[in-house]
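[User] I wish I could look at a protein chain and see how it folds. I have put the entry right below:
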Amino acid sequence: MKIKHIITYCLIYILVLFSAGCGDDYLDFFPEDKITSANFPQDEKDVKLLLNGVYSLLRETSIYDQGLFGFGVLDGATPNAFNWGNLALAKIANGSLSSGDVQVVTFRWQRCFSIIYRANYFLQELEKVELTEDLKKMYAGEAHFLRGLAYATLVESYGGVPIITTAISTEEARTIARSTAEETWNQAHSDYDIAIENLGIDAPQKGRATKGAALAMKMRACLYQGRYQDVLDLADEIDALGEYALFPSYEGLFNIANENNIEVIFDIQYMAGENSQGSLHDQYCGTGTGSWTRGSRYVPTQDLVDAYETIDGSPVDPVNPYVNRDPRLEFTVVVPGSFFLGFQFPNYLYPGGAFNHPGNRFKQLSTRKYRIEPMSDLPPSGQSYLNNIVIRYADVILSKAEAIIETEGDVDEAVALINRIRTERDDVKITALPTGLSRDEARERLRHERRIEFAMEGLYWMDIKRWDICKDLYPMEIRDHQDALIETRFPDGYLEYYDLLPIPDSERALNSNLAQNPGW
């Protein structure tokens, strides 16, 4: 059962004092028909309600704000994808962002600190409720996991940020200074460690944190820091759980029928229904329909398409460029010749246009991963019920391979792990990499495999920054279906200070102790 969105997670504190008669006698009265600090939380049901209020902040229903984990939206800030319109993410992609821009710049900051605030409040209130020690440990583990996610997302995006581990006042929030990036990473690791210790292998509900999820997210944090030996140790701990494996179908991995499958370690739950239970993902990121309300705004680039190999390693046929290609290409991208069900006709064979949003000049390609098919089953606007996979077992395999390469380990062992991604699924069988590669060759192949495997899943933005290869990727031209230039990204070369987002001007106006990142 998916975790339902809880609308009434905000607490109202009401204390009404009545004086009775003369003298010093008075009555403390707590209304029973309202949630107050005096009567909430009282029992495990209240604890769950309060915790759901923290989980709910992981969800993003609009996509406009780019979310915390971003489906393929964050790929729009990389060579993998193009997003049309004067949005902050488009400015990150082309080098025109400013600290005064909103959307992703302010959203990630504000949403993460909302998670931190609610997690801190939850941990404070949890101590006041009578529960068994095992239940208290589990609920505390979940809160620390969520707070760890928030701090990791903040430091990935902005560098060091203020570290807050207790409920603080508004006045305190307006004076607290930034900690270093190392201190912020350490806070994330500390939270993950508590989650790892307290959480079980299985969760009471789908979508709630588990020991595997905490291990995997700590592994990712270590990967992003270059702590490769820790990556190896954590990957081994994940494997020792015996809970995860590659799903047999790459295409089916992102299908509604296979949600919460054996490859998914942690995902964000969406569901059909009212009250913003779903997202606008199918409108903004999925296969287009050519309408103003159902068009792809975040679409793969030709640069990404060109990166896909052929199945047998032969050169791409210039006459039939989409024949004999890595099957993940057509599972990820709508290309000429793509076939899918239920458009304006019973079936639709893409002959020459991807039916993207009319405002999008990029017409030739569209996103197929995370689509809902047949398209006649598309939910109402804003109610896409596909879950967002935050981390899956393929990431464990490729993270371990990268760590082996970077710790002077056995290159052939790393190559064998990469080959699992290339050959182990029923619907992805491409030529295995040979043994005997040099360390540099293996590193290049690993980076290529991560790009292809996780294309349009939002991971490439962090990958290209931590690999320090952005300067090699830009300038980059984006051209439309008639080969007309749409934009040139970083025309004068990549600006290194773009490795971090600016601290939002709106936040610095409230707190003068928030020093701005260099360059902004």
User: Anything to note?
Assistant: Confidence is low (pLDDT under 50) at residues 1-31, 342-348.
